[in-house]
Amino acid sequence: MARTIIPFGPQHPVLPEPLHLKLVCEDEIVKEAIPALGYVHRGLEKLAEIRDFNQMIQVVERVCGICSMLHSQCYCQGIEEMMGVEIPERAKYLRTVWSELHRMHSHLLWLGLFADAFGFESLFMQFWRIRERIMDLNEATAGSRVIVSVNVVGGVRQDLTPEQCSWILTEVAQAGKEIKAIQSTMLSDYTVCKRTKGVAALTKEQAYELGAAGPTLRASGVAQDMRQLKYAAFDKIDFEPVVEYDGDCYARGVVRFREALQSIDIIRAAISGMPQGDISVPVKGNPEGEIITRVEQPRGECMYYMKGNGTKFLERVRIRTPTFANVPPLIAFMPGLELADVPVAVLSIDPCISCTER
Amino acid sequence: MIENMKEITLDAVVGEASKMKSDGQRLVALSCTQLDADNFDIIYTFDKELVLTNFRVTVPKGSDCPSISGIYFAALLVENEIQDQFGIMFNGLVLDFGRTLYLDEEITTIPMCNNTKAMTVKK
Amino acid sequence: MLKMTPTVLKNLFSKSSTRMYPFEVREPFPLYRGELFNDIDKCIFCKKCEIKCPSQCITVSKDKEAGTGTWICDPFACVYCSICVDVCPTKSLSMAPNHRKPSATRDMIEQVGKLKVPKKKKAAPKKD
Question: Which chain A positions have a beta carbon within 8 Å of C33's beta carbon?
């Protein structure tokens, strides 16, 4: 059988970002997928050499738009641990609230894009309408829709007033109600099931061995969530990682759908348990030493390795983003897929190419 | 401070990685740092049940590093990235981009980058 | 079957959730960081904003002979993080909630103010 190489991307209707895959096909069956990156590499890690460690917060926030809050949170946690700074309890809870709002809006964005990938435009519209509530919450409480820029080394910059807290609670409760109204469509509609069930399945062992992260790993039955590391306020807030066992595109969708709903509970718990007090502590000195910190981003585990040398410039900032870990599983589950299923399969790992290349 | 850090030599990398694999550890990342003009530092990070295990390898400039992508397939992307950014070559990569993961052949200069392919003098 | 129908019917008989944007504009949220302003009369040209700015879009210079100071901001390089507003010692910088309109030309915000002699002494030790 003759083999054809079909280029997928960098511009493709389902991809908001430039990922290029060379698909080696026999008839309509993909035999091999070779990724090609480098379309949005910006060298942000290198910027650490000319931006001091406080200015780097704004740089790492721009690694990824959708999970910007979690990038800066991870970075600040690392620097705080290196400098031995204990941040106030209230700041930890505030970080939790904003990071869960980010997780919610990221998952709603993905669910919309996923529906769009298999041609369910009207579902896409529903999800994005719900997402707009969360974006408004971000804009009104933090000052920006996406790049909220609330983290500083030593705490947070914005506080939530009691009115804002109750407004957040009513809005997320309303969003939860709206998500539940389309639950039956997303989870049991004939079209959705037909396009996603059994597509691009990964077994538990495969997913673990290939180093998958986040919902891709949890959809295969591994109950691993970095929030179990108890950073920020997660030592006080109880939650169970969302796990599905099929490992296919449908399972990944279900994991994200349930996590979006779970975030509402976490936001509620964080706001009700939020203590009064300061929101930041003053920080003196420069970071020195080495540190590895991890947080759970909407897309999975994100790892920061940082090395400080006692000056205000960090010697090295290394960012391992979740999509970077999810590309090997993507290459691995591609062979055997039909060409028409490739967009759905690619989207199922929630690719964020800006994150991957930094 | 980094937990469970172990210093190993360049020859022991593959052996240690396969030990990690049989122990059921998941590869998290490789982090490369330039120590001085002639030395690079690679930290291999593994995770098992939320506990990290690390080894540190010091690689002198110009020497090749054995690839662990045969053991952990997930290492291929990050090893290609280190090839691109630091110029350390990996032996036995499953899928070798030959320092063109991020860059195309025809690119000749990039601002503010020292170790990339485009900045290396052609022989 | 027909799982989407209730939602579709609800959408059909409810108000539109989008706005006719250029004709109908939503009130901005008061905390939104839209545009950076400098009250040049309060500014003491201490360069704190220039030093702390992550995108390095602010340039402050002093002309001692003429007794004037210049504050220049490149609004196209600004990332609207409001770090400069936080560090400003005299609160001369502020953010307004309306974002800037699109522009066809790249122009800088340039403001010239008088140097204040007594206040300049106060600013000098903070500079290091």
Answer: 143-144, 149
CATH number of domain containing B48: 3.30.460.80
CATH number at residue C61: 3.30.70.3270
**A147–C4 C-beta distance less than 8 A:** no
Into how many domains does chain B fold? 1
| Mean of per-residue pLDDT scores for chain C | 80
Q: How far apart are the first and last CA of chain C?
A: 71
Residue ranges of chain A with per-residue pLDDT less than 70: 1
Assembly ipTM: 0.81
A290/B45 touch (CB, cutoff 8 Å), yes or no = no
Q: Write out the residue range of the structural domain in which residue C80 sits.
A: 28-127
Q: What is the pLDDT of residue C74?
A: 85
Q: How many other β-carbons are positioned within 10 Å of the β-carbon of residue A166?
A: 12
Architecture of the CATH domain A44-321: Orthogonal Bundle (1.10)
User: Does C1 fall in a domain?
Assistant: no
Q: Which chains touch B (3 or more CB pairs under 8 A)?
A: A
pTM of the predicted model as reported, rounded to 2 decimal places:
0.86
Vertex A170: Cα angle to A164 and A171 (nearest 5): 85
Q: In angstroms, rounded to a whole number, what is the distance separating the alpha carbons of residues A269 and A120?
A: 34
Comparison of pLDDT for C41 and A101, the residue scoring more: A101
User: Please, are residues A304 and A292 in contact by the beta-carbon 8 Å criterion?
Assistant: yes
According to DSSP, the residues that pair with C114 across neighbouring strands are C68
Is B28 in contact with A224 (Cβ distance < 8 A)? Answer: no
- For chain C, what is the domain count? 1
Residue A99 in contact with residue A232, Cβ under 8 Å? yes
Percent above pLDDT 90 for chain B: 0
Listing from the earlier edge strand, what are the strands of the sheet with B26-34? B5-7, B51-60, B39-48, B26-34
Judging contacts by C-beta atoms under 8 Å, the chain C residues touching residue A126 are 7
What pLDDT score was predicted for residue B1? 65
Secondary structure element (H or E) that encloses residue A251, with its range: helix A249-272
Note the pLDDT of residue B117: 67
State residue C125's pLDDT score: 44
Q: What is the pLDDT of residue C118?
A: 53
Within-domain flag for C77: yes
- Report the candidate in B6, B14, B115, B108 with the shortest Cα–Cα distance to residue B62: B115
How many of the other CB atoms lie within 10 Å of CB of A274? 19
DSSP-derived pairing of the beta strands A3-8 and C109-114: unpaired
Average pLDDT of every residue of chain B:
80
Mean pLDDT in residue range C120-126: 44
* Residue indicated by tokens 């999975």: A300
Domain that holds residue B26: 5-119
A-chain CB neighbours of C57 within 8 Å are none
Which pLDDT belongs to residue B122? 57
Question: What is the reported pLDDT for B121?
Answer: 61
What CA–CA distance (Å, rounded) separates A306 from A82?
A: 9
C82 is a domain residue:
yes
pLDDT reported for residue C120: 46
| C67 is a domain residue | yes
* Touch B-A: 3+ C-beta pairs under 8 A: yes
pLDDT at C127 over 70: no
